[in-house]
Amino acid sequence: MTYQTHIAQLTNLIADQNGTWDAISPESVARMRLQNRFTTGLDIARYTAAIMRKDMAAYDADPAHYTQSLGCWHGFIAQQKMISIKKHFGTTDRRYLYLSGWMVAAMRSEFGPLPDQSMHEKTSVPALIEELYTFLRQADARELGMMFRDVDAARAAGNAIEEQRLLNAIENHQTHVVPIIADIDAGFGNAEATYLLARKMIEAGACALQIENQVSDEKQCGHQDGKVTVPHEDFLAKVRACRYAFLELGVEDGIIVTRTDSLGAGLTKQIAVSKEAGDLGDQYNSYLDCEEIDPATAQNGDVILNRDGKLLRPKRLPSNLFQFRAGTGEDRCVMDCIASLQNGADLLWIETEKPHIEQIAGMVDRIRKVVPNAKLVYNNSPSFNWTLNFRQQVFDAWSAAGQDVSAYDRARLMSVDYDGTTLADEADERIRTFQADSAKRAGIFHHLITLPTYHTAALSTDNLAKEYFGDAGMLGYVKGVQRKEIREGIACVKHQNMSGSDLGDDHKEYFAGEAALKAGGAHNTMNQFAA
Questions:
Q1: Burial bucket for residue 23 (CB in 10 Å: 0-12, 13-18, 19+)
Q2: Rounded to an integer, what distance in angstroms lies between the CA atom of residue 382 and that of residue 450?
Q3: C-alpha–C-alpha distance, residues 77 and 73, integer Å
Q4: Of 91, 195, 353, 466, whose CB has the highest number of CB atoms within 10 Å?
Protein backbone atom coordinates (compact mmCIF):
# COMPACT_ATOMS: atom_id res chain seq x y z
CA MET A 1 0.00 0.00 0.00
CA THR A 2 1.04 3.58 -0.58
CA TYR A 3 1.56 6.08 2.22
CA GLN A 4 -1.80 7.74 1.56
CA THR A 5 -3.58 4.37 1.26
CA HIS A 6 -2.21 3.34 4.65
CA ILE A 7 -3.47 6.61 6.17
CA ALA A 8 -6.96 6.19 4.67
CA GLN A 9 -7.24 2.55 5.77
CA LEU A 10 -6.08 3.37 9.29
CA THR A 11 -8.41 6.35 9.56
CA ASN A 12 -11.35 4.03 8.90
CA LEU A 13 -10.02 1.39 11.29
CA ILE A 14 -9.62 3.91 14.13
CA ALA A 15 -13.06 5.39 13.47
CA ASP A 16 -14.59 1.94 13.96
CA GLN A 17 -13.37 1.72 17.57
CA ASN A 18 -16.12 3.93 19.06
CA GLY A 19 -13.71 6.66 20.10
CA THR A 20 -11.40 4.43 22.17
CA TRP A 21 -8.55 4.80 19.64
CA ASP A 22 -9.02 8.49 18.88
CA ALA A 23 -5.64 9.35 20.41
CA ILE A 24 -3.93 7.17 17.78
CA SER A 25 -2.71 9.14 14.74
CA PRO A 26 -3.37 7.33 11.44
CA GLU A 27 -0.43 9.09 9.81
CA SER A 28 1.93 8.12 12.62
CA VAL A 29 0.94 4.46 12.28
CA ALA A 30 1.33 4.71 8.50
CA ARG A 31 4.84 6.00 9.03
CA MET A 32 5.69 3.15 11.38
CA ARG A 33 4.36 0.65 8.85
CA LEU A 34 6.50 2.06 6.06
CA GLN A 35 9.50 2.06 8.38
CA ASN A 36 8.95 -1.66 9.04
CA ARG A 37 8.28 -2.92 5.53
CA PHE A 38 9.45 -6.48 6.30
CA THR A 39 7.79 -7.99 9.34
CA THR A 40 9.48 -11.42 9.16
CA GLY A 41 12.66 -12.96 7.81
CA LEU A 42 10.58 -15.00 5.36
CA ASP A 43 9.23 -11.74 3.89
CA ILE A 44 12.85 -10.75 3.29
CA ALA A 45 13.83 -14.13 1.82
CA ARG A 46 10.94 -14.09 -0.66
CA TYR A 47 11.56 -10.47 -1.65
CA THR A 48 15.32 -10.88 -2.13
CA ALA A 49 15.05 -14.24 -3.93
CA ALA A 50 12.95 -12.53 -6.58
CA ILE A 51 15.63 -9.84 -6.91
CA MET A 52 18.35 -12.45 -7.42
CA ARG A 53 16.29 -14.31 -10.02
CA LYS A 54 15.73 -11.06 -11.93
CA ASP A 55 19.44 -10.24 -11.74
CA MET A 56 20.39 -13.73 -12.95
CA ALA A 57 18.15 -13.30 -15.99
CA ALA A 58 19.64 -9.87 -16.67
CA TYR A 59 23.15 -11.35 -16.53
CA ASP A 60 22.18 -14.12 -18.96
CA ALA A 61 21.08 -11.41 -21.40
CA ASP A 62 24.21 -9.27 -20.86
CA PRO A 63 27.21 -10.31 -18.69
CA ALA A 64 27.95 -6.63 -18.04
CA HIS A 65 25.11 -6.94 -15.48
CA TYR A 66 27.12 -8.93 -12.98
CA THR A 67 26.51 -8.49 -9.25
CA GLN A 68 28.79 -7.83 -6.27
CA SER A 69 28.96 -8.15 -2.50
CA LEU A 70 31.28 -7.72 0.47
CA GLY A 71 31.43 -10.06 3.43
CA CYS A 72 30.04 -8.50 6.63
CA TRP A 73 30.65 -9.87 10.12
CA HIS A 74 28.31 -7.50 12.00
CA GLY A 75 24.98 -5.81 11.33
CA PHE A 76 26.53 -2.36 11.70
CA ILE A 77 29.10 -3.13 9.00
CA ALA A 78 26.36 -4.29 6.61
CA GLN A 79 24.25 -1.25 7.42
CA GLN A 80 27.05 1.25 6.82
CA LYS A 81 27.97 -0.53 3.59
CA MET A 82 24.44 -0.19 2.17
CA ILE A 83 24.08 3.41 3.38
CA SER A 84 27.35 4.21 1.60
CA ILE A 85 26.22 2.48 -1.59
CA LYS A 86 22.99 4.50 -1.64
CA LYS A 87 24.94 7.70 -0.94
CA HIS A 88 27.53 7.18 -3.67
CA PHE A 89 25.51 5.40 -6.36
CA GLY A 90 21.89 6.31 -5.63
CA THR A 91 20.72 2.69 -5.79
CA THR A 92 21.40 -0.70 -4.23
CA ASP A 93 20.76 -2.53 -7.52
CA ARG A 94 23.01 -5.58 -8.06
CA ARG A 95 24.75 -5.07 -4.69
CA TYR A 96 24.33 -7.87 -2.17
CA LEU A 97 25.63 -9.05 1.20
CA TYR A 98 27.83 -12.06 1.80
CA LEU A 99 27.94 -13.98 5.08
CA SER A 100 31.25 -15.76 5.46
CA GLY A 101 31.52 -18.88 7.61
CA TRP A 102 35.19 -17.99 8.05
CA MET A 103 34.31 -14.67 9.68
CA VAL A 104 31.61 -16.25 11.85
CA ALA A 105 34.21 -18.74 13.10
CA ALA A 106 36.91 -16.13 13.58
CA MET A 107 34.78 -13.36 15.11
CA ARG A 108 31.35 -14.49 16.26
CA SER A 109 31.85 -17.77 18.13
CA GLU A 110 31.45 -18.04 21.89
CA PHE A 111 34.60 -20.16 21.86
CA GLY A 112 36.59 -17.14 20.68
CA PRO A 113 38.55 -17.02 17.42
CA LEU A 114 38.40 -20.34 15.59
CA PRO A 115 39.77 -21.64 12.29
CA ASP A 116 37.34 -22.18 9.42
CA GLN A 117 36.63 -25.82 10.23
CA SER A 118 32.91 -25.80 11.17
CA MET A 119 33.72 -25.82 14.87
CA HIS A 120 31.66 -22.71 15.66
CA GLU A 121 28.07 -22.94 16.84
CA LYS A 122 25.82 -23.55 13.86
CA THR A 123 23.16 -21.31 15.45
CA SER A 124 25.55 -18.36 15.17
CA VAL A 125 25.02 -18.36 11.40
CA PRO A 126 21.23 -17.72 11.36
CA ALA A 127 21.73 -15.36 14.31
CA LEU A 128 24.08 -13.23 12.23
CA ILE A 129 21.68 -13.26 9.26
CA GLU A 130 18.94 -11.96 11.54
CA GLU A 131 21.32 -9.33 12.93
CA LEU A 132 22.34 -8.14 9.46
CA TYR A 133 18.73 -7.63 8.42
CA THR A 134 17.82 -5.99 11.73
CA PHE A 135 20.42 -3.31 11.03
CA LEU A 136 19.33 -2.91 7.38
CA ARG A 137 15.71 -2.51 8.41
CA GLN A 138 16.79 0.09 10.97
CA ALA A 139 18.60 1.94 8.17
CA ASP A 140 15.26 2.09 6.32
CA ALA A 141 13.47 3.35 9.42
CA ARG A 142 16.13 6.01 10.05
CA GLU A 143 16.16 7.29 6.47
CA LEU A 144 12.37 7.40 6.21
CA GLY A 145 12.17 9.02 9.65
CA MET A 146 14.33 11.89 8.45
CA MET A 147 12.14 12.23 5.37
CA PHE A 148 8.99 12.35 7.52
CA ARG A 149 10.54 15.11 9.62
CA ASP A 150 11.28 17.03 6.43
CA VAL A 151 7.60 16.60 5.38
CA ASP A 152 6.50 18.08 8.70
CA ALA A 153 8.93 21.00 8.28
CA ALA A 154 7.65 21.68 4.74
CA ARG A 155 4.06 21.63 5.98
CA ALA A 156 4.89 24.00 8.84
CA ALA A 157 6.52 26.38 6.36
CA GLY A 158 3.52 26.15 3.99
CA ASN A 159 5.75 24.81 1.20
CA ALA A 160 3.34 22.53 -0.65
CA ILE A 161 5.73 21.89 -3.56
CA GLU A 162 8.50 20.63 -1.27
CA GLU A 163 5.98 18.56 0.69
CA GLN A 164 4.79 16.86 -2.49
CA ARG A 165 8.37 16.24 -3.63
CA LEU A 166 9.11 14.54 -0.34
CA LEU A 167 5.93 12.47 -0.43
CA ASN A 168 6.89 11.26 -3.91
CA ALA A 169 10.34 10.34 -2.61
CA ILE A 170 8.75 8.39 0.25
CA GLU A 171 6.54 6.46 -2.15
CA ASN A 172 9.59 5.54 -4.24
CA HIS A 173 11.95 4.83 -1.34
CA GLN A 174 14.41 2.02 -2.07
CA THR A 175 15.04 -0.27 0.84
CA HIS A 176 18.49 -1.06 2.20
CA VAL A 177 17.41 -4.72 2.38
CA VAL A 178 19.27 -6.66 -0.32
CA PRO A 179 19.92 -10.34 -1.04
CA ILE A 180 22.39 -12.23 1.12
CA ILE A 181 24.42 -15.23 0.02
CA ALA A 182 24.93 -17.16 3.25
CA ASP A 183 27.60 -19.78 3.90
CA ILE A 184 26.23 -23.00 5.35
CA ASP A 185 29.71 -24.61 5.17
CA ALA A 186 29.40 -28.35 4.48
CA GLY A 187 26.03 -28.53 6.25
CA PHE A 188 27.29 -29.07 9.83
CA GLY A 189 26.44 -32.76 9.76
CA ASN A 190 24.30 -35.14 7.73
CA ALA A 191 21.50 -34.17 5.35
CA GLU A 192 18.98 -33.81 8.19
CA ALA A 193 21.33 -31.45 10.05
CA THR A 194 21.76 -29.49 6.83
CA TYR A 195 17.99 -29.21 6.41
CA LEU A 196 17.47 -28.01 9.98
CA LEU A 197 20.14 -25.33 9.69
CA ALA A 198 18.98 -24.29 6.20
CA ARG A 199 15.48 -23.77 7.55
CA LYS A 200 16.75 -21.52 10.34
CA MET A 201 18.85 -19.52 7.89
CA ILE A 202 15.91 -19.02 5.52
CA GLU A 203 13.60 -18.05 8.38
CA ALA A 204 16.19 -15.40 9.32
CA GLY A 205 16.04 -13.96 5.79
CA ALA A 206 18.56 -15.83 3.63
CA CYS A 207 17.45 -16.24 0.02
CA ALA A 208 20.66 -17.93 -1.16
CA LEU A 209 22.58 -20.73 0.56
CA GLN A 210 26.14 -21.67 -0.38
CA ILE A 211 27.11 -25.25 0.43
CA GLU A 212 30.40 -27.04 -0.26
CA ASN A 213 31.31 -30.62 -1.11
CA GLN A 214 33.73 -31.22 1.75
CA VAL A 215 33.30 -33.73 4.57
CA SER A 216 31.56 -31.95 7.45
CA ASP A 217 33.84 -33.24 10.19
CA GLU A 218 37.00 -32.71 8.12
CA LYS A 219 35.98 -29.31 6.68
CA GLN A 220 38.79 -26.85 5.94
CA CYS A 221 38.95 -23.29 4.67
CA GLY A 222 38.95 -23.37 0.86
CA HIS A 223 42.40 -21.76 0.84
CA GLN A 224 44.07 -24.22 3.19
CA ASP A 225 45.50 -27.67 2.67
CA GLY A 226 43.95 -30.94 3.82
CA LYS A 227 40.54 -30.64 2.14
CA VAL A 228 38.52 -33.85 1.85
CA THR A 229 35.57 -34.18 -0.54
CA VAL A 230 32.55 -36.48 -0.44
CA PRO A 231 30.97 -38.58 -3.22
CA HIS A 232 28.33 -36.80 -5.25
CA GLU A 233 25.34 -38.68 -3.86
CA ASP A 234 26.24 -37.59 -0.32
CA PHE A 235 26.58 -33.98 -1.42
CA LEU A 236 23.44 -33.98 -3.57
CA ALA A 237 21.40 -35.25 -0.62
CA LYS A 238 22.37 -32.03 1.19
CA VAL A 239 21.53 -29.94 -1.87
CA ARG A 240 18.08 -31.52 -1.88
CA ALA A 241 17.77 -30.87 1.86
CA CYS A 242 18.30 -27.16 1.20
CA ARG A 243 15.69 -27.20 -1.57
CA TYR A 244 13.18 -28.95 0.67
CA ALA A 245 13.74 -26.25 3.30
CA PHE A 246 13.11 -23.48 0.77
CA LEU A 247 9.96 -25.13 -0.56
CA GLU A 248 8.59 -25.96 2.89
CA LEU A 249 8.86 -22.30 3.88
CA GLY A 250 7.31 -21.01 0.65
CA VAL A 251 10.50 -19.47 -0.76
CA GLU A 252 10.05 -21.10 -4.13
CA ASP A 253 12.66 -18.88 -5.82
CA GLY A 254 15.35 -19.74 -3.24
CA ILE A 255 18.86 -20.03 -4.66
CA ILE A 256 21.36 -22.79 -3.96
CA VAL A 257 25.04 -22.15 -4.65
CA THR A 258 27.10 -25.34 -4.80
CA ARG A 259 30.80 -24.95 -4.10
CA THR A 260 33.39 -27.46 -5.25
CA ASP A 261 36.73 -27.65 -3.49
CA SER A 262 37.97 -30.41 -5.77
CA LEU A 263 40.63 -28.24 -7.40
CA GLY A 264 42.58 -28.16 -4.15
CA ALA A 265 41.23 -31.32 -2.49
CA GLY A 266 43.28 -34.43 -3.18
CA LEU A 267 41.53 -36.68 -0.68
CA THR A 268 38.22 -38.44 -0.14
CA LYS A 269 36.93 -40.10 3.00
CA GLN A 270 34.70 -42.54 1.13
CA ILE A 271 34.69 -44.62 -1.98
CA ALA A 272 31.48 -43.87 -3.84
CA VAL A 273 28.74 -46.44 -4.30
CA SER A 274 28.51 -47.42 -7.98
CA LYS A 275 25.61 -49.41 -9.39
CA GLU A 276 26.70 -49.50 -13.02
CA ALA A 277 29.65 -48.49 -15.13
CA GLY A 278 29.75 -44.77 -15.92
CA ASP A 279 27.39 -43.61 -13.18
CA LEU A 280 28.35 -40.76 -10.85
CA GLY A 281 29.86 -43.09 -8.29
CA ASP A 282 31.94 -44.84 -10.91
CA GLN A 283 33.14 -41.51 -12.31
CA TYR A 284 34.12 -40.31 -8.83
CA ASN A 285 36.04 -43.51 -8.15
CA SER A 286 37.79 -43.35 -11.52
CA TYR A 287 39.95 -40.53 -10.24
CA LEU A 288 41.26 -42.49 -7.24
CA ASP A 289 44.98 -43.21 -7.18
CA CYS A 290 45.00 -47.00 -7.54
CA GLU A 291 47.43 -49.82 -8.21
CA GLU A 292 46.59 -53.04 -10.01
CA ILE A 293 46.98 -56.11 -7.83
CA ASP A 294 46.96 -59.85 -8.09
CA PRO A 295 44.30 -61.45 -5.85
CA ALA A 296 47.02 -63.67 -4.46
CA THR A 297 48.92 -60.67 -3.14
CA ALA A 298 45.90 -58.92 -1.58
CA GLN A 299 46.47 -58.03 2.03
CA ASN A 300 44.19 -58.23 5.02
CA GLY A 301 41.85 -55.19 5.13
CA ASP A 302 42.47 -54.15 1.52
CA VAL A 303 39.71 -52.27 -0.28
CA ILE A 304 39.59 -53.57 -3.85
CA LEU A 305 37.77 -52.13 -6.87
CA ASN A 306 36.85 -54.06 -9.99
CA ARG A 307 37.18 -51.94 -13.13
CA ASP A 308 37.23 -53.25 -16.67
CA GLY A 309 38.12 -56.72 -15.45
CA LYS A 310 41.06 -55.50 -13.41
CA LEU A 311 41.39 -55.56 -9.63
CA LEU A 312 42.59 -52.21 -8.29
CA ARG A 313 43.62 -51.21 -4.79
CA PRO A 314 43.03 -47.51 -3.98
CA LYS A 315 45.91 -45.96 -2.05
CA ARG A 316 44.79 -45.49 1.54
CA LEU A 317 46.66 -43.15 3.85
CA PRO A 318 47.35 -43.75 7.56
CA SER A 319 44.51 -41.28 8.23
CA ASN A 320 42.16 -43.82 6.54
CA LEU A 321 41.57 -41.34 3.71
CA PHE A 322 41.86 -42.24 0.05
CA GLN A 323 43.93 -40.26 -2.40
CA PHE A 324 43.01 -38.94 -5.84
CA ARG A 325 45.50 -39.00 -8.69
CA ALA A 326 47.53 -35.83 -9.03
CA GLY A 327 46.40 -33.48 -11.79
CA THR A 328 42.75 -34.56 -11.76
CA GLY A 329 41.41 -31.50 -9.90
CA GLU A 330 40.03 -29.60 -12.88
CA ASP A 331 38.30 -32.68 -14.29
CA ARG A 332 36.72 -33.38 -10.90
CA CYS A 333 35.62 -29.73 -10.61
CA VAL A 334 33.88 -29.88 -13.97
CA MET A 335 32.17 -33.16 -13.04
CA ASP A 336 31.09 -31.72 -9.68
CA CYS A 337 29.60 -28.61 -11.29
CA ILE A 338 27.67 -30.46 -13.97
CA ALA A 339 26.29 -32.94 -11.43
CA SER A 340 25.19 -30.09 -9.14
CA LEU A 341 23.41 -28.16 -11.90
CA GLN A 342 21.68 -31.31 -13.10
CA ASN A 343 20.45 -31.95 -9.56
CA GLY A 344 18.93 -28.66 -8.46
CA ALA A 345 21.77 -26.18 -7.97
CA ASP A 346 21.28 -22.66 -9.36
CA LEU A 347 24.79 -21.23 -9.20
CA LEU A 348 28.29 -22.65 -8.96
CA TRP A 349 31.31 -21.72 -6.87
CA ILE A 350 34.73 -23.02 -7.90
CA GLU A 351 37.33 -22.36 -5.23
CA THR A 352 40.60 -21.66 -7.03
CA GLU A 353 44.14 -21.10 -5.76
CA LYS A 354 44.64 -17.87 -7.72
CA PRO A 355 42.51 -15.28 -9.58
CA HIS A 356 43.30 -16.29 -13.17
CA ILE A 357 40.54 -15.62 -15.69
CA GLU A 358 41.59 -18.21 -18.27
CA GLN A 359 41.91 -20.95 -15.64
CA ILE A 360 38.34 -20.28 -14.50
CA ALA A 361 37.07 -19.86 -18.06
CA GLY A 362 38.63 -23.15 -19.15
CA MET A 363 36.47 -25.03 -16.63
CA VAL A 364 33.35 -22.95 -17.31
CA ASP A 365 33.65 -23.57 -21.07
CA ARG A 366 33.57 -27.30 -20.41
CA ILE A 367 30.60 -27.00 -18.04
CA ARG A 368 28.65 -24.86 -20.51
CA LYS A 369 28.96 -27.53 -23.19
CA VAL A 370 26.53 -29.51 -21.02
CA VAL A 371 24.66 -26.71 -19.19
CA PRO A 372 24.77 -23.61 -21.43
CA ASN A 373 23.58 -21.07 -18.86
CA ALA A 374 25.95 -22.17 -16.06
CA LYS A 375 26.95 -19.21 -13.88
CA LEU A 376 29.46 -18.74 -11.10
CA VAL A 377 29.71 -17.03 -7.77
CA TYR A 378 33.42 -16.23 -7.41
CA ASN A 379 35.46 -15.52 -4.31
CA ASN A 380 37.74 -12.53 -4.91
CA SER A 381 39.58 -13.78 -1.87
CA PRO A 382 41.92 -11.83 0.43
CA SER A 383 43.80 -15.14 0.61
CA PHE A 384 45.14 -14.30 -2.86
CA ASN A 385 48.12 -11.96 -3.07
CA TRP A 386 46.46 -9.91 -5.78
CA THR A 387 49.43 -7.62 -6.38
CA LEU A 388 51.94 -10.44 -6.79
CA ASN A 389 49.58 -12.67 -8.80
CA PHE A 390 48.73 -10.03 -11.37
CA ARG A 391 52.27 -8.69 -11.67
CA GLN A 392 53.42 -12.24 -12.35
CA GLN A 393 50.61 -12.71 -14.88
CA VAL A 394 51.76 -9.60 -16.75
CA PHE A 395 55.40 -10.73 -16.50
CA ASP A 396 54.49 -14.12 -17.99
CA ALA A 397 52.39 -12.55 -20.75
CA TRP A 398 55.18 -10.16 -21.69
CA SER A 399 57.74 -12.96 -21.62
CA ALA A 400 55.58 -15.19 -23.84
CA ALA A 401 55.19 -12.31 -26.31
CA GLY A 402 58.96 -11.84 -26.49
CA GLN A 403 58.91 -8.55 -24.61
CA ASP A 404 62.00 -7.59 -22.58
CA VAL A 405 61.44 -8.39 -18.87
CA SER A 406 65.07 -8.22 -17.79
CA ALA A 407 64.34 -5.24 -15.52
CA TYR A 408 62.06 -7.37 -13.35
CA ASP A 409 62.69 -10.21 -10.89
CA ARG A 410 59.57 -12.39 -11.11
CA ALA A 411 59.99 -13.69 -7.56
CA ARG A 412 60.27 -10.14 -6.10
CA LEU A 413 57.46 -8.43 -7.99
CA MET A 414 55.59 -7.68 -4.74
CA SER A 415 58.41 -5.30 -3.78
CA VAL A 416 57.66 -1.58 -3.49
CA ASP A 417 60.63 -1.12 -5.84
CA TYR A 418 58.32 -2.01 -8.72
CA ASP A 419 55.50 0.36 -7.76
CA GLY A 420 54.90 2.88 -10.53
CA THR A 421 56.57 0.78 -13.21
CA THR A 422 54.87 0.01 -16.50
CA LEU A 423 54.43 -3.62 -15.44
CA ALA A 424 52.86 -2.65 -12.10
CA ASP A 425 50.51 -0.18 -13.79
CA GLU A 426 49.32 -2.82 -16.26
CA ALA A 427 48.82 -5.30 -13.44
CA ASP A 428 46.75 -2.76 -11.48
CA GLU A 429 44.58 -2.13 -14.55
CA ARG A 430 43.97 -5.87 -14.88
CA ILE A 431 42.97 -5.99 -11.20
CA ARG A 432 40.63 -3.02 -11.72
CA THR A 433 38.84 -4.69 -14.64
CA PHE A 434 39.05 -8.26 -13.30
CA GLN A 435 35.40 -8.47 -12.30
CA ALA A 436 34.01 -7.08 -15.57
CA ASP A 437 36.46 -9.11 -17.66
CA SER A 438 35.79 -12.40 -15.87
CA ALA A 439 32.03 -11.80 -15.85
CA LYS A 440 32.21 -11.59 -19.64
CA ARG A 441 34.77 -14.34 -20.29
CA ALA A 442 34.35 -16.81 -17.43
CA GLY A 443 30.63 -16.80 -16.61
CA ILE A 444 30.94 -15.08 -13.23
CA PHE A 445 27.53 -13.70 -12.27
CA HIS A 446 28.44 -12.67 -8.73
CA HIS A 447 31.73 -11.33 -7.41
CA LEU A 448 32.28 -11.24 -3.68
CA ILE A 449 35.12 -10.57 -1.30
CA THR A 450 34.75 -12.95 1.62
CA LEU A 451 36.69 -11.15 4.35
CA PRO A 452 37.17 -7.48 3.41
CA THR A 453 35.66 -5.90 6.51
CA TYR A 454 37.77 -8.15 8.74
CA HIS A 455 40.84 -6.58 7.16
CA THR A 456 39.51 -3.01 7.04
CA ALA A 457 38.59 -3.14 10.73
CA ALA A 458 42.12 -4.25 11.59
CA LEU A 459 43.76 -1.66 9.32
CA SER A 460 41.70 1.31 10.55
CA THR A 461 42.20 0.28 14.20
CA ASP A 462 45.94 0.02 13.65
CA ASN A 463 46.05 3.50 12.13
CA LEU A 464 44.03 5.01 14.99
CA ALA A 465 46.06 3.25 17.70
CA LYS A 466 49.34 4.39 16.14
CA GLU A 467 48.24 8.04 16.07
CA TYR A 468 46.15 8.33 19.24
CA PHE A 469 48.62 6.60 21.54
CA GLY A 470 51.51 8.40 19.85
CA ASP A 471 52.51 12.04 19.57
CA ALA A 472 49.32 13.03 17.72
CA GLY A 473 47.16 12.31 20.76
CA MET A 474 43.57 13.44 20.30
CA LEU A 475 44.45 14.90 16.91
CA GLY A 476 44.97 11.34 15.76
CA TYR A 477 41.26 10.72 16.21
CA VAL A 478 40.04 14.13 15.06
CA LYS A 479 42.15 14.36 11.92
CA GLY A 480 42.14 10.67 11.02
CA VAL A 481 38.50 9.91 11.80
CA GLN A 482 36.03 12.64 12.77
CA ARG A 483 37.14 15.35 10.35
CA LYS A 484 36.95 12.85 7.50
CA GLU A 485 33.52 11.66 8.65
CA ILE A 486 32.17 15.22 8.60
CA ARG A 487 33.69 16.18 5.27
CA GLU A 488 32.86 12.91 3.52
CA GLY A 489 29.29 12.77 4.84
CA ILE A 490 29.63 9.52 6.78
CA ALA A 491 26.23 8.83 8.35
CA CYS A 492 27.49 7.59 11.71
CA VAL A 493 29.26 10.85 12.55
CA LYS A 494 25.87 11.55 14.17
CA HIS A 495 26.16 8.36 16.16
CA GLN A 496 23.14 9.09 18.38
CA ASN A 497 20.95 9.42 15.31
CA MET A 498 22.51 6.29 13.82
CA SER A 499 21.73 4.26 16.93
CA GLY A 500 18.06 5.24 16.79
CA SER A 501 17.76 8.21 19.15
CA ASP A 502 15.69 10.30 16.75
CA LEU A 503 13.48 7.33 15.94
CA GLY A 504 12.87 6.92 19.65
CA ASP A 505 11.95 10.61 19.95
CA ASP A 506 9.42 10.23 17.15
CA HIS A 507 7.83 7.29 18.93
CA LYS A 508 7.77 9.15 22.25
CA GLU A 509 5.86 11.96 20.55
CA TYR A 510 3.42 9.47 18.98
CA PHE A 511 2.80 7.81 22.34
CA ALA A 512 2.82 10.78 24.74
CA GLY A 513 2.29 13.88 22.61
CA GLU A 514 3.47 17.13 24.21
CA ALA A 515 4.38 15.25 27.41
CA ALA A 516 7.17 13.37 25.62
CA LEU A 517 10.63 13.80 27.13
CA LYS A 518 12.79 13.81 24.01
CA ALA A 519 16.57 13.45 23.69
CA GLY A 520 17.03 15.54 20.56
CA GLY A 521 16.56 19.00 22.05
CA ALA A 522 18.72 22.11 21.90
CA HIS A 523 21.29 20.71 24.33
CA ASN A 524 21.98 17.56 22.32
CA THR A 525 25.65 17.80 21.28
CA MET A 526 24.87 16.10 17.98
CA ASN A 527 23.50 19.49 16.89
CA GLN A 528 27.15 20.50 16.42
CA PHE A 529 27.15 18.39 13.27
CA ALA A 530 24.01 19.96 11.77
CA ALA A 531 26.10 21.90 9.25
A1: exposed
A2: 7
A3: 7
A4: 195
Rounded Cα–Cα distance for residues 252 and 126 (Å): 19
Q: What is the pLDDT of residue 496?
A: 87
Instruction: Give the C-alpha separation, 450 to 14, whole Å.
Output: 49
49, 255 in Cβ contact below 8 A?
A: yes
Closest to 254 measured CA to CA, from 48, 59, 92, 98: 48
For Cα atoms 454, 485, 502, give the angle at the middle one, nearest 5 degrees.
95
**Reduced to 3 states, what is the DSSP secondary structure of residue 228?**
strand
Smallest CA-to-CA distance from 500 within 169, 178, 129, 146 is with 146
- Amino acid symbol at 279: D
Is 278 within 8 Å of 230 (Cβ atoms)?
Answer: no
Q: How far is CA 357 from CA 192, 224, 349, in A?
A: 37, 21, 14
Which DSSP symbol is given to 236? H
Q: Is 290 a catalytic residue?
A: no
Catalytic residue among 72, 221, 242, 290: 221
CA-to-CA dists, residue 36 to 139, 140, 141, angstroms: 10, 8, 7
Please write the tens of the pLDDT for every residue from 487-510: 999 999 989 898 998 999 999 899
Task: Report pTM.
Answer: 0.94
